Amino acid sequence: MKNSQKLMNHQELGTQLDLYSFHEIAPGAPFWHPKGMIIFRELEKLIRETLDKADYQEISTPIMVRKDLFEKSGHFKFYKDLMFTAKNDNQIFVIKPMNCPESTIIYSSQVRSWRDLPLRFSEIGRLHRKELSGVLNGLFRVRQITMDDAHIYVHQNQMIDEIDRLIILINNFYKIFGFKTSYYLATRPDEAMGAKSLWDKAEDALAQALKQNKIKYELQPKEGAFYGPKIEVHVKDSLNRSWQLGTIQVDFNMAEKFNLSFVNQEGKKEKPVVIHRAVFGSFERFIGILVENYQGAFPVWLSPIQVKVLNLTDRNKKYAKKVATELIESNVRTEIDDANETIGKKIRNAEVEKISYILVIGDKEEKNGTVSVRERGKGDLGAQKLEKFKSKILFEIEEKI
Q1: Does 288 lie in the same domain as 304?
Q2: Does residue 98 have a pLDDT over 70?
Q3: DSSP 8-state code for residue 350
C-alpha cells in the first residue's frame, strides 16, 4: 500500500481526472462528467450482466409517490426526517428514499404461484435522503443516491439457500476489485416491527448461511433495520477506513404490511419472505472508494480512456487516426493527441491522465505497420503489430484485468 500521506482523496482526483464535480447549487449531489459516466456505466453493465446470469428481472419504479405508501410500510415513522416531500393537488408526495415499498406494487400486480419463487426483482434506483449538510462528504455521503437494489420473494424453505447464493454473488463480485471483506450480523433493534419469533427465525437463517460459507462474522446487537436483521459487508479502503457496502436483509414484515401472498402447492394463499439486498451499497460510495484505492490508475476495463495515440510528427497524423479508428471500432476507448507539442510532453500529459496504454506513432511505425507501446507502470514495451496489441488489450478488458 502506498504511503497514505501521499494519497489524494476522491474529490481531488475527480477534479484532476475530470470525472465529476460538486457545486453549491446542488449540495450532496455530484455532477458526473463524461469520463466519470464511463466508469458509472461500466459498473452498471457489470452488475446487470451478473444479475442476468443469476436469474434476476429488472424493474424500475417511480421516483415520487404518495406518502401513504411509506406510511403503510412503516418507513415514514422511522425515517420521515430523512425524506424530501412535495405537495401537489392537496396531497403529500415523497421523493423516494428507498425502493422496497414500490417493489411490492409490482409483486402484487398479478397472482403469484409457488412455482414463481424465488422471484428476484432488481432495480438501479435513484434515491434522495435529507442528510444534514454537516455530514455530506463528496461521494461517500450524498443526498442523491444510486442504489443497486434487489427484492427477492421466497418461500420460508428457500430462505437459507437464497441467502447462500447472495453471499457467493457478493464475494465473487468483490474479488474483481480485490476488496478484503468483513462480515457483520446486525440483530433486532429496540424499535422493531413484528414478532420476536420471526426475527429469531430470520437471524438464524442469516447466521446459518454465513456458517455454510465458512465466513467469520461479528454480531452487531440491535443494529438491524426496523423490519428485519441483516448481514452487512464492510471493506477497507486505501486509508484503512471501513465502509459498509453490501447488505442482505431478511424481512417477514413487508408481506404482512402489504398483504402479499402466493398460492402454495395445496392451492392456499401463503405469505412470502422478502430478502432485500445490495451489492454496491451505492454507486457513489463504491466509485469514491475505487477512485481512492486505484488513485485514478484504474484497471484497463474500467479506465475512461484505455489508449492514447500520439503522433510523432504531422506526417504521421493519418496513420495515427487509422490506428485509433481501428481500436475504437473494436470497442477500445481511444483518444488521439495530435497537438503541436513535443512527444515528451504528450507522453507526460497522458501519464498524468493515468492512461493505461500509450501508442507512439512515428515514421518507423508507419512504415512497418506497427505501434510503439507504453504501458502504465511498466514503461516502453517496444514496437508491436497493431493486431497483437489489440488482442492483448481486448483480452484484458474481457477478463477484467
Answers
A1: no
A2: yes
A3: H
pLDDT in tens, 52-94: 999 999 999 999 999 999 999 988 888 889 999 999 999 999 9
Is 88 inside a domain boundary? no
C-alpha span between 281 and 120 (Å, rounded): 17
* Phi, psi torsion values for 81, nearest 5 degrees: -70, -15
User: Are residue 279 and residue 378 in the same domain, yes or no?
Assistant: no
- Cβ atoms of 214 and 183 within 8 Å: the answer is no
Q: Which of these three, 294, 312, 332, is where a domain ends? A: 294
Task: Say how many domains are in the chain.
Answer: 2
Q: Which residues contact 121 (CB under 8 A, 6 or more apart)?
A: 56, 57, 58, 59, 103, 106, 107, 150, 151, 152, 153
Q: Tell which residue, 83, 149, 99, has the closest CA to residue 283.
A: 149
Note the pLDDT tens digit of each residue in 168-185: 999 999 999 988 899 999
Q: Which of these three, 261, 294, 327, is where a domain ends?
A: 294
Contact 361, 328 (CB under 8 A): no
* pTM above threshold 0.90: yes
